Fold these 3 entries.
Entry 1:
Amino acid sequence: MIGEVLPGSARVAITGVGAKAPDRIVTNHDLAELVETNDEWVVERTGIRERRFAAEGEALSDYAIPAARIALAQAGLEGTDIDLIIVCTLTPDMVFPCTAALVGDAIGAKNAAAYDLSAGCTGFVYGIAQAYGMIASGLASRALVIGGDLLSKILDMHDRGTVVLFGDGCGAVVLEKVAKGGFLGFELGADGAGGKDLFMPGGGSRIPATHASIDRGDHLIHMNGREVFKFATRILVASAEHTLARCGVTIADVDVYIPHQANMRIIEYAVGKLGIPQEKVVINVDRFGNTSGGSIPLALADAQAAGRLHDGDLVLMTGMGTGLTWGSALIEWNGTGEGR
């Protein structure tokens, strides 16, 4: 599914950004005490030097709520101004109620529509596309989209293939109508045939929690790293190219590129194939690892904090993940919300 914003459509932009990650830093040296690995091996293959792990007893909302409050403050809004909340995550506080409703209660968005969205590492792109559509159509006025995961809660701490890759973190954005700039186009897609390559089999209606399913590790991440790598390197490039082509711009027009922070080798491959200069690429995978739904919004917050986002900049975001899903979004940055 791909499309550019139609002429005459309402302009919708991101006007506030917030992020929150755990304080606990887990280095490759720390993980070497759990699995057979070392810092050099992990850095060479992934580019990851450290990641954050949440504390025991903490849940996603413990990070989603402060990230949301930061984004709201930056947009100059209160929780009561929000009428749609989407939390994009694989690790909600619980199966139900949705974490989005818990966030809404905490920030005072008492009457906002709220739901969780499960599209893995692509979740944030799916979420902002849905929020854009709701606002542009008039079904919502201002939306809060949160992307985040506490993947440490579902990691097999003795599986070297996954434990070195994933971390915890959360980012949030406010979307609303503006007079200039805003989203120019999106692409979203999924190939369920690849679902077997990155999944958690337990916890749903097919394999509910039992002593046997827990003992088998059914409630932990399972990944076919080779197949996911092949998919990611292909789709990051293809999705970005399709989105730019439909929006009538080229990679040379892009000022800031924010890819999903899965693995440095994947990012480097995509950057090389796209031909985008390194100085335009936002990378924080070395400090956070792969935070799934939190990946792109955390990188967006980093880019903003570093002064890399300016009004009028074209910002390209592309994600891919379990499903297997993928998605891209192109936005003309108007972080001040000028003219709203």
Entry 2:
Amino acid sequence: MGQTIGQLEKLWKKPILRVVGLMSGTSADGMDAALVEITGSGLNTKVKTTGFVSLPYPDAIRAEILRLASGTEGGSRDLCLFHFLLGQLGLEACLAVCEAAGVAPSEIDLVGSHGQTLYHLPAAEPYAGRQVRGTLQLGEASVIAEGLGCPVVSDFRVRDFAAGGQGAPLVPYSEYLIYRREDKTVALQNIGGIGNLTLLPKGGAPEDTLAFDTGPGNMVMDQLTERITGGKQRYDADGALAAQGTFSPELLEWLLSDPWLRLPPPKSTGREVYNAAYVDALIARSLEIGLSSVDILATATRFTAECIGIAVRDFCSVAPDLLIVGGGGSRNPTLMAYIREVLRVPVLRNEDLGLDSDAKEAVAFAILANECIQGQCNNMPSVTGASHPVVMGKISL
């Protein structure tokens, strides 16, 4: 116990911590690792990103993630092996970002690892005679702790979940620390596999922050692209395929009839909804209408933009002065053009502010890890619906 406390005391006394944040998202395209220097905590947090890498998953690993995330495949043996495999991949990403930044692994003070969400059920369902809700993120943190010799904070979502929250989204905590403005209301839209929106009212306190999932981000577009290209492309690079088509108002109306889009926040969603079966139904409806492949993809791209429009118009308590888009979707010019058509506010990318869209979520988990070891509550009940603030994250030493 004394040795354990001693490890944390060393971190508490250091003015600057070198922290690696790890993120593996719903797109299941790879492991992101950001190396940051953090000073302070809470509202006094200062962050400087010094390195970033994204390690694409080999086809076999990505296929396994998608198989296990379907909810109908895999048993305890698969989950056991995947848990430790992802821990090893997390360690490899940590070593890769250290190499890229020219930092020795022994100089890393802390790691914050999101893991891979395999299933997320924020609404209770019948199970074994009870009504149960749950969320599952895997990726054994002890593998990383052993490899680097430093504490690792992981499995963030479950503590908020236990307090009645949805355990999502979590990035708004770091967004409040980094992006809040006294003179402007800022909206931040992340477009990963799932889209999520954060609203930071000008001069607002943490409890004024609003954030929630907006619906599919890249997830549906990515699945369609893989099918259109026979698996040769995982995503629509530069929105080039969608740009060849025209979105169908009839199919778009069908997509927008999704009742989830009208649910008020807090709300979150994932691959449990916008999965292969969803895309099957989308394609079947498209064929009834007589659409080409590129028209289907163009409509799915427009759908992501319209979901963001609904979120801003219907659920934001105050109209944003600007929207900052991050995540992989921000590199899709066709999608960005649709977003600008749908919204009547200035739309920027993180890069327009000198920030890295790709690194944003990994940086967030570095910040959340720092808050955890400092004993700071790092959820936002106004966002997740939790009954009270909690310290999220499990510490592996």
Entry 3:
Amino acid sequence: MGQRRNTSYEHQERINEALYRIHADLSGDLDIISLAQRACYSPYHFQRIFKQITGETVHDYVRRCRLEWAANLLIYNPDTAIVEIATECGFHSNASFNHAFKAFVGCSPSVWRREGYENRSRSLKALWSVSDTNPHRKYYEDTLRETDRPVLPPVVIKHLASQPVAYIRHIGYDQGIGEVWARLLDWATVHDIAVEKQQMIALHHSNPDLIPFERCRYVACLTLPNKTYPSDGVGVMEIPGGLHACCEAEGVFGDLLYLMRNLYMQWLPASDYQARSIPPHARYQDNHFINQSRRFRLTFNIPVSRKR
């Protein structure tokens, strides 16, 4: 049992290296050979283990991530040319992007930008809002009716340094995230990392207005005091630095969805900035998944660049 557990952790750690390479630059040449080299596998074993860990083939995973971000950027960056968004998301032919995008969402990029996003989002949330088991039912109901939109706190543009972190990936914007944090903090304690001196950070890969909450991708991260190596299924990576739109907030589970929506759908399109194809992250002062109050205090940071 112990050997099997160690092997599973080793697979996860190696695949994490490939996943980091994918999400760090979706515009890059993410071919199987270079990703396999990053994970220290032969191409054959890499493809087999990648699907075992993620549930998707390498090709399907990369393609989905690129198209999901393209679908978001078309709305978040309404002044950016479609061909620029296609290139940023790894499509070097406008024709291939249009074909892939239509197959993915059912309409062309221009139609998506004009009405497709809103129609799809509303139809999905109408479906999700009637589920008694959905933890974000109120959010879907509120945003369908456009009621109870929280006032957006002030947004400050800052240049953030890159940050090395230990991390564990989780699928689902749900209460199960608490178990991931507990595992990460236990790992840190075992490795003599003073948790109280580090910062907890969460990466949010998915747009909950388009992706079902149980498929949204979340990454629990803990800053590191010195060089640390992956172990026990916990990965090590660097959160990219650069220009960020930063906003402080507090609340309870589910409230962050409102803030994310307002920042991306209201503030960003009207600002002098545009989103980059890098996921936003929350830096916790209080983490509601592990504290007794069940309330969070955090700074939410969106990677941005100035509009040209």
